[in-house]
């Protein structure tokens, strides 16, 4: 089976091999290699898979020709998906949801290279509609549960980051999936419960009375803390101390760290789980700080002061930045895509009031390194914007 004349058989094999051995394993599609033989029989799925795989290869190798071919596959797959989504019988199939997820991944890759976030958001809305159409029946099969979890996490992260409310119906479906223990792993249940709670809080926290807001935030922080503690018990990480330098930055053996500390995790999937918990707790402190700075809010709220919030926020920032060197400095840019997943958390962290100035400088430098080593145009743009915001000249 050949997908199209644009990809000759040798490259076709390379594209699919790259997807399952590199792209999928280092990102959110880590569950797909187990289903490779099944997926390869579906021409429509392979069309969307090739779009994402070629898009990733184009970004990784800075190749415009691969990018053009990827866009051809994306356009053809999008047309075919939209046709299937217009028919209720085909819209609810696993093949429709996996294609939407693959096309979402393509748009995420385009965003890294300067594309439009709204194109990705459109696919997220499509995923939301599909989960509701598929209902509880999608949770009956192992593959359906994996797709549900993948799409659900995408939806919830988008909700938290952009304060987009999730529909009551979809939240109820998430609650059903997690409370019924239908998801494949305990960690899948925990991450969906944590993100669901954060997604409910994010759009409304600024409009709540201060006392109520702090109650909601402390409950969210408690859940995130429990999740982080369980990770530390089941998949602990190693803390490495790197040699000191005069200015507080550390440079040794080509590794650039913040405050001389580097974390080594079992793998980058585990690192992202840790940082999801830390990001949630950091967002809690940012929201607390905003409320404590409000003239209508008491300076002291349920034992929290601005000083305490800033101190704890700085600690969380340090822990998150300790995970940067492994992806950025130690992984080979020719064979790894993990570092791409640093861009959004780093950029978001640097915009927070609870992020200390030295950490913001380290983030800006890391974004520049990310742009240069992994060809991420958006990372350089983010670094330039943050540089201007910090009042330092653009290099």
Summarize the structure.
The protein is mostly helical and 395 residues long.
Give, in order, the helices and strands.
Answer: HHHHHHHHHHHEEEEHHHHHH
Total individual domains = 2
Q: What is the total tally of β strands?
A: 4
State the end-to-end distance. Answer: 49 Å
Q: Write down the overall geometry.
A: globular
Number of contiguous helices: 17
Percent range of helical residues: 55-70%
Oligomer: single chain
| Uncertain runs | 1-6, 244-253
Major pleated sheet: 2 strands, antiparallel
Neighbour order of strands in the largest sheet: 1-4
Average pLDDT figure: 87
Structure classification = mainly alpha
Rg over alpha carbons? 21 Å
Strand content range: under 5%
Description:
This protein has 17 helices and four strands. The strands form two sheets. It has a two-stranded antiparallel sheet. Strands 2-3 form a two-stranded antiparallel sheet. The protein has about 400 residues and is mainly alpha-helical. The protein is globular and about 60 Å long. It folds into two domains: about 1-115, no CATH class; about 210-395, no CATH class. Helix 1 packs across helix 3 (about 45-60). A hairpin with a 2-residue loop joins strand 2 (about 250) and strand 3.
Could you name the key traits of this structure?
2 domains, 17 helices, DHMBA_Reg_Transcription_Factor, nucleus, Fun_TF, 395 residues, 4 strands, disordered N terminus, mainly alpha
Q: What's the SSE blueprint?
A:
Blueprint: H1 9-23, H2 36-39, H3 43-61, H4 64-85, H5 88-91, H6 94-112, H7 117-134, H8 142-162, H9 168-179, H10 186-201, H11 210-234, E1 238-241, E2 249-252, E3 255-258, E4 261-264, H12 268-293, H13 306-321, H14 324-330, H15 343-350, H16 357-374, H17 377-389
Antiparallel strand pairs: 1-4, 2-3
């Amino acid at each position: 089976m050949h997908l199209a004349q644009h990809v000759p058989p040798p490259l076709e094999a390379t594209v699919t091999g790259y997807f399952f051995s590199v792209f999928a394993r280092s990102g959110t599609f880590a569950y797909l290699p187990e289903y490779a033989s099944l997926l390869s029989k579906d021409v429509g799925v392979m069309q969307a898979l090739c779009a994402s795989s070629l898009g990733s290869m184009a970004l990784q190798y800075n190749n415009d020709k691969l990018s053009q071919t990827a866009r051809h596959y994306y356009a053809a797959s999008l047309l075919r998906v939209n046709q299937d989504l217009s028919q209720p019988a085909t819209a609810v199939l696993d093949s429709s949801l996996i294609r939407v997820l693959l096309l979402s991944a393509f748009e995420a890759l385009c965003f890294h290279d300067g594309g439009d976030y709204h194109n990705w958001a459109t696919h997220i809305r499509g995923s939301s509609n599909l989960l509701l159409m598929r209902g509880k029946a999608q949770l009956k099969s192992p593959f359906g549960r994996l797709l549900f979890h993948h799409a659900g996490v995408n939806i919830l992260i988008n909700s938290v980051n952009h304060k987009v409310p999730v529909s009551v119906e979809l939240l109820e479906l998430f609650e059903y999936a997690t409370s019924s223990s239908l998801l494949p792993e305990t960690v899948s249940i925990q991450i969906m419960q944590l993100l669901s709670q954060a997604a409910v809080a994010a759009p409304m926290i600024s409009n709540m009375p201060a006392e109520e807001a702090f109650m909601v935030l402390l409950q969210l922080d408690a859940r995130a803390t429990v999740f982080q503690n369980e990770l530390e018990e089941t998949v602990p990480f190693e803390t490495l101390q790197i040699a000191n330098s005069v200015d507080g930055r550390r440079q040794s053996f080509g590794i650039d760290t913040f405050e001389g500390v580097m974390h080594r995790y079992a793998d980058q999937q585990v690192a992202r789980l840790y940082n999801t918990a830390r990001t949630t707790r950091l967002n809690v402190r940012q929201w607390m700080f905003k409320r404590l700075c409000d003239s209508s809010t008491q300076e002291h709220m349920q034992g929290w002061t601005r000083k305490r919030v800033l101190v704890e926020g700085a600690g969380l920032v340090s822990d998150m930045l300790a995970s940067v060197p492994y992806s950025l400095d130690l992984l080979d840019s020719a064979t790894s895509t993990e570092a791409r997943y640093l861009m959004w958390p780093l950029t978001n962290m640097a915009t927070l009031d609870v992020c200390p100035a030295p950490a913001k400088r380290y983030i800006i430098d890391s974004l520049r390194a990310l742009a240069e080593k992994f060809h991420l145009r958006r990372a350089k743009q983010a670094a330039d914007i943050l540089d201007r915001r910090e009042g330092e000249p653009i290099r």
